[in-house]
């Protein structure tokens, strides 16, 4: 048996792992690389395998850095099932067509540039995939329930467990039998932070021979809920009287959690009369899907997250749909909280709001999620003084705030605690979905405190198991 680490190895996005055993080969995730100048080029490269030869695909969750290359997989000849949870399937109905639309718009924009200005990005005038590919992909989705063990192929079965990261996210347990030998592989997917609003905590897994585990925040803790609330209230009080607050947020997961956080603050009279605009049609649809799957909420969220309560506590919550409505927001000079995608600031309507507010010292930008290396969001977090948006140079005068307490990823202590849930150490542990330092720090703690055998694979590295 072999595992080839095709993505999210030494980096945070592009999750993709090829498992080969006997005559069967399958993928776990097929994600898009996000952030950085090389991402559009790498996403267009041929797969390191023949899609025709795959037997099935397992998908941990709907975020584009885990699912975004599925339409390319279908376009290039894959014809089998994509197994995932019901909630993830519902979210893919929104995310994959939206991703295709972005590919088509970006390609059309690139085609308008003179060839002399396209430089090393020449050739990006063709989308990675088209809307038809995304819609065709949806026909390959096979929904499964949490906790049910299903047979995938002779000698291979799996079970999806709740990862608590976003709606429908899963830890995947896989049992592979070769001859008289059965191995259990566990892919953690992205693990959620315990005690986080809305979703249930990640399920503990008790045993594995091979563990592929995320390490996004393996080197740091998140801020506590109380300190996070205090920080948000302080930003609101200082900014809203004279300026706007712009919140780049992933349409799935983060937007809903930000709304929940604002709802909590309003309920306890820590903020009042907020004017909140969710400027993302995809986020609006994802919010409706979130409300549809309240069986996945924790108990407190089940009590709070009803449209009636949201309407009472946040009466000035608006979901914009049309381009015209979005453009009108840029005329507001103060008092607005604008939540918009994309979460890393590299695409979508958020770029327009940054364009109109970054240069204003009275405004604030609240970063609520991980920013991949090379993304516009990462450059803002790292303190860049000047950025280019839609060809316009903009001086960064707005204050930039990183609100780590709202992260959907488990922090270092939560990752260690989840690892302690194993009754005995996995024989082999591979840390993925993390930059070099977080992965190395987490590996050190797992080795020192739990005596685990840990390896950090490189991209395209293949590990064989005899």
Q: What's the arrangement of secondary structure elements?
A:
Blueprint: E1 2-7, E2 16-21, E3 24-30, H1 39-43, E4 56-58, H2 64-67, H3 70-75, E5 82-85, H4 86-111, H5 115-118, H6 131-138, E6 141-144, E7 149-153, E8 156-162, E9 170-178, E10 181-187, E11 210-214, H7 225-239, E12 245-248, H8 254-267, E13 275-278, H9 281-292, H10 299-304, H11 307-313, E14 317-319, H12 323-329, E15 336-340, H13 350-357, E16 364-367, H14 376-381, E17 386-389, E18 392-395, E19 399-402, H15 412-419, E20 428-432, H16 436-450, E21 454-455, E22 461-464
Parallel strand pairs: 3-4, 4-5, 5-6, 10-11, 11-20, 12-15, 12-16, 13-14, 13-15, 16-19, 20-21
Antiparallel strand pairs: 1-2, 1-22, 2-3, 7-8, 8-9, 9-10, 17-18
Helix pairs in contact: 4-6, 4-9
Entry keywords:
seven-stranded mixed β-sheet; 466 residues
In words, what does this structure look like?
With 466 residues, the chain is of the alpha/beta class. Helix content is 32%, strand content 23%. The strands form 4 sheets. A 7-stranded mixed beta sheet has the order 6-5-4-3-2-1-22. The longest helix is centred in the N-terminal third of the chain and has 26 residues, at 86-111. It starts with a strand and ends with a strand. The model has no long low-confidence stretch (mean pLDDT 89).
> What portion of the residues fall into strands of 2 or more residues?
15-25%
> In angstroms, what separates the terminal alpha carbons?
7 Å
Q: Helical percent range?
A: 25-40%
* Tally of contiguous helical segments: 16
Broad shape: globular
Strand-pairing-aware structural class: alpha/beta
Stretches with pLDDT under 50, minimum 5 residues: none
Main pleated sheet:
7 strands, mixed
């Amino acid at each position: 048996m072999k595992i080839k680490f095709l993505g999210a190895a030494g980096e945070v996005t592009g999750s993709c792992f090829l498992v080969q055993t006997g005559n069967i080969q399958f993928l776990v995730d097929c994600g898009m690389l996000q952030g950085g100048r090389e991402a559009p080029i790498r996403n267009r490269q041929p797969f390191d395998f023949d899609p025709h030869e795959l037997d099935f695909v397992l998908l941990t969750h709907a975020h584009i850095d885990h699912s975004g290359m599925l339409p390319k997989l279908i376009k290039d000849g894959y014809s089998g099932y994509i197994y995932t949870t019901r909630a993830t399937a519902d979210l893919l109905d929104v995310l994959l067509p939206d991703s295709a639309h972005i590919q088509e718009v970006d390609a059309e924009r690139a085609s308008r540039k003179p060839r002399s200005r396209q430089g090393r990005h020449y050739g990006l005038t063709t989308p990675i995939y088209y809307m038809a590919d995304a819609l065709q992909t949806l026909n390959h989705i096979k929904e499964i329930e949490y906790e049910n063990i299903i047979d995938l192929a002779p000698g291979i079965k799996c079970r999806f467990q709740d990862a608590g990261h976003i709606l429908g996210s899963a830890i995947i347990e896989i049992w592979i039998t070769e001859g008289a030998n059965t191995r259990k592989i566990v892919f953690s997917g992205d693990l959620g932070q315990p005690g986080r609003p809305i979703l249930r905590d990640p399920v503990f897994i008790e045993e594995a021979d091979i563990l592929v585990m995320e390490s996004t925040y393996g080197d740091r803790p998140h801020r506590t809920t109380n300190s996070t609330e205090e920080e948000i209230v302080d930003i609101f009080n200082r900014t809203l009287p004279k300026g706007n607050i712009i919140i780049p947020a992933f349409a799935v997961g983060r937007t809903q959690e930000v709304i929940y956080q604002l709802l909590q603050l309003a309920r306890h009279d820590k903020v009042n009369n907020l004017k909140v605009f969710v400027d993302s049609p995809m986020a609006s649809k994802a919010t409706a899907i979130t409300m549809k799957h309240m069986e996945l909420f924790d108990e407190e969220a089940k009590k709070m997250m009803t449209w009636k309560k949201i309407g009472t506590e946040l009466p000035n919550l608006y979901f914009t749909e049309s381009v015209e409505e979005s453009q009108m927001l840029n005329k507001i000079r103060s008092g607005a909280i604008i939540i918009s995608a994309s979460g890393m600031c590299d695409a979508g309507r958020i770029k327009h709001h940054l364009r109109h507010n970054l240069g204003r010292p009275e405004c604030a930008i609240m970063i609520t999620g991980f920013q991949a290396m090379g993304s516009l969001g990462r450059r803002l977090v790292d303190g860049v003084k000047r950025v280019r948006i839609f060809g316009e140079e903009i001086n960064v005068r707005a204050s930039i705030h990183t609100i780590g307490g709202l992260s959907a990823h488990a922090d270092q202590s939560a990752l260690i605690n989840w690892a302690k849930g194993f009754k005995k150490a996995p024989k082999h542990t591979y840390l993925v979905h993390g930059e070099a330092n977080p992965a190395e720090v987490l590996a050190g703690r797992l080795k020192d405190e739990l005596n685990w055998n840990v390896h950090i694979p490189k991209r395209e590295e293949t590990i064989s198991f005899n």
